Amino acid sequence: MVLKIFFPQCCTTADSGLLVGCWIPDQDSAVVLAVVHYPFIPGQVKRYLTEIRSQTDVDLTVLGSWSMPKEGQEGMDSFLKDLSTIFPHSRWLQLSREIGKRGEGSVRDENEKVIIVHYDQRKVMLSQLHPVQEGVSHSKMEQSALRAVFHTVAQSHPLFFIDKYDDGPLKLTHWQSEGREASIIAELVKQGSVPVCKLLTWMLSLWSWLGSIRLLNVPPVRFISSKLSTCVQLGYRTEHLQTVSSTRKATEHMEFMRKANIFVSFLLDMALGLLLIAWLYRENRIGKLASTLVPVADHVAKELRELLEWLMGAPAGLKMNRALDQVLGRFFIYHIHLWISYIHLMSPFIEMILWYVGLSACLGLTFALSVLSDMVALLTFHIYCFYVYGARLYCLKIYGLSSLWRLFRGKKWNVLRQRVDSCSYDMDQLFIGTLLFTILLFLLPTTALYYLVFTLLRLVVVLFQGLIHLAVDLLNSFPLFAMGLRVCRPYRLAEGVKFRVLCEEEGTPLHLMMEINPIKVSAVLQYYRTPTYSCYPRDSWMALCKKLFVGELIYPWKHKTTKTD
């Protein structure tokens, strides 16, 4: 049988005393957490361990003795060995360090093979062990023993967190044996964050109550607010602030990391928004932007008019149906005239509108980008109308041709059973079906050409809005805090451990060094990416091509997604 002893590195230079830790049930392992220095009173040690056990879920006990040879303490080994009668246990460990050798020791038990695993107590306590990725094979016993070690050290934090100048009855050695100095700034932030969080929670509850007013929940208002990126981002940011400002302490690691990621992302978002405001309102950039908007709109209208005139002729030498071509061309040209008249009507107010819209960046860069996406949707509303008209006409003819084609084959669509059934038609029905099929077939190229041109224009707008939405999603969902831990303190996010041999000699225990393997960057994104709103399309490329072929509409609206486990 092999006995595994997990021994902290900080205790290798400790004075002689008692080993305090716990046994891992069913694993034949012991985790040493601290060394109680001599001199001590056994009754005080028992009371101290009872007090620590009441604060943690760890069954702390005296594991054995630790001997550091010093002058004038020649009989210390026998004295510490006799303490096994005062602290009864099934096993009594006796570890000692030989002078002149680093990281070595001995166990006074010849019936078992002993492996001493040295570990960095600070890193193990602050780290979070994640599941092993990429199918690395480990036995369930090894995984459970390793997790038990991490869990034991992490749950023993009351044993380590003592003040620097707290002179208690016992002197211990662990990773914080010198204590920790309290930070006045940190304490002030902790004390001041509670009323701030309560005030923010009250303001958010008031905002949620205003949003639940019946007037704002009527179907038209609810439909429009669900399609505006600004409203969606506002609701999303409100949800984030409610999570961060909650006065309830995070009890789990994932909950703490989610709050930290949201808080850091919020700070970065606000900082980038303030930088954007500083850039916009310097050197009259708002006025320059407003003065160039109307000429750009006129240029776009001119290009669209030339495109429609080209389609009304013989585009690329194609023979079009002249009557339908002229009707569609004039119809779209009239819409362009309406749109440019609307732009010129709003031109005196554009600079004022942009000035107030720029102030939205004080709520964060994501809010400003959402407002920009809505402005693009409003400024390109005529292109959306052209696309809808062309798509509806094209879709109507495609479905009409498919229905008439089933008529020629003696089939029909059964609406109740959702399938194609056989059907017999008389001569009048077949004659009218033939005429309609011929008319739709010869009008299809003209409609398809207009649909193709306006679909391409629509896809350009959707692509631009999609890039804006991707930037917003990146700022909202990127685990910035977790990525910072991965770069600056990789041991905080552990994927596993590796062991390095320190000493392997005959007649002495095997000494290993346990080192933490940091988690991969891809795994950080998988575990800690915040659930967010993704922009269209979420379909596959085949499904998107099918929608475009049959004339179904595509939208850049956002859809909420959930994070997969």
Automatic annotation (TrEMBL):
Keywords, ordered alphabetically: Membrane, Transmembrane, Transmembrane helix
GO biological process: GPI anchor biosynthetic process
Transmembrane segments: 262-281, 327-346, 353-380, 386-408, 429-453, 459-482
InterPro entries for this protein: PigQ/GPI1
Pfam family, one: Gpi1
Recorded coiled-coil stretches: none
Gene Ontology terms: cellular component: endoplasmic reticulum; membrane
PANTHER family, sorted: PHOSPHATIDYLINOSITOL N-ACETYLGLUCOSAMINYLTRANSFERASE SUBUNIT Q, PHOSPHATIDYLINOSITOL N-ACETYLGLUCOSAMINYLTRANSFERASE SUBUNIT Q-RELATED
Protein name: Phosphatidylinositol N-acetylglucosaminyltransferase subunit Q
Organism this protein belongs to: Denticeps clupeoides
Gene name in the database record: PIGQ
